[in-house]
Design goal:
Blueprint: E1 3-7, H1 12-23, E2 27-32, E3 42-45, H2 51-58, E4 63-66, H3 78-98, E5 103-109, H4 140-159, E6 162-168, E7 170-172, E8 195-197, H5 198-210, E9 217-221, H6 232-239, H7 260-266
Parallel strand pairs: 1-2, 1-4, 2-3, 4-5, 5-6, 6-9, 7-8
Helix pairs in contact: 1-5, 2-3, 3-4
């Protein structure tokens, strides 16, 4: 496996992933609607809503990292967000199946659980939040990610495609930490104070690409700590007193969203924290 097709290579995470793939010796082709002067790899301008274009662009690839998406329910009409994310994912998986490409890593989101953008207040059924928790989206973006995961699972069942959906939490680059109000926990209640340093998101993506996943898997990709300076038990007592099912006691600022499955299946672990930047 040497030739990697990367959709969304011009995006925030895609740019970092492309660089690290090349550092590891992979031959990378970026598929995006625009070219980027930050990328040093081959670039193709591709409309991912067109299956023919996608199939032509993926020809000759050994694996696909699919990161292209509208990343939030903002800036576009809801129907466009849903259609863009679901159709592009279907086309990437269909093209991979037609071309006998055996591995696809697709970018999902913790928004699939339904809490991040919920228009009506809602709480998880239990803590810590893990991959066994049902997906309960209330809006177009979380729904699109849920459907994309089901699509990947279908292709895995149908053709034996190895597919991994990575449920990234809020991705933060080192230069962005200072902009966030760590001391205002109410601002991050809806994401359960979950975040991941972009360098750890990249390492998880490469670990998924290089793993022998077998059946379809959806994995949380998040830091080991919360995006707050308040102990996790105190956060839950204050902001989620209605959730009585706590399946463990959290030590210090331990993450409330579990990354244990990604650690065990991928041999991956996050190594970065906002505490290394903000004191």
């Amino acid at each position: 496996m040497n030739k990697i097709a990367l959709t969304g290579g011009s995006g925030k995470l895609g740019t970092w992933v492309a660089e690290q793939l090349q550092r590891r010796g992979y031959e990378v082709t970026s598929l995006d609607t625009r070219r980027s002067d930050r990328l040093k790899c081959r670039q193709l301008q591709v409309d991912l809503s067109d299956l023919g274009q996608v199939t032509g662009a993926l020809r000759g690839s050994d694996a696909v990292v699919h990161l292209a998406a509208i990343p939030a329910p903002l800036g576009y009409s809801f129907d466009r967000i849903f259609a863009n994310n679901t159709i592009s994912t279907y086309n990437v998986l269909e093209a991979a199946s037609l071309l006998d490409i055996g591995k696809v890593v697709t970018g999902s989101s913790e928004s699939a659980y339904g809490f991040a953008w919920a228009p009506a207040p809602s709480s998880p059924l239990y803590f810590p939040l893990d991959e066994n928790h049902p997906l309960l989206p209330q809006e177009c973006y979380g729904l699109s990610k849920s459907v994309c995961e089901q699509t990947a699972a279908m292709f895995s069942r149908r053709s034996g495609l190895q597919a991994i959906a990575l449920r990234y939490s809020m991705i933060v680059a080192p230069s962005e930490y200072e902009r966030h109000a760590i001391g205002k926990p109410q601002q991050y209640k809806h994401i359960l104070w979950s975040y991941v340093d972009i360098r750890d998101a990249v390492s998880a993506t490469l670990a998924a690409l290089e793993s022998d996943s077998g059946e379809f898997r959806a994995l949380n990709v998040t830091s080991d700590d919360t995006f707050s300076d308040i102990p996790s038990e105190s956060l839950l007592d204050r902001f989620y007193p209605d959730v009585e099912d706590r399946r463990k006691t959290f030590a210090g600022r331990e993450a409330i969203v579990s990354n244990g499955l990604a650690k065990s299946l991928l041999g991956w672990a996050p190594v970065h924290s906002w505490k290394q930047v903000i004191n």
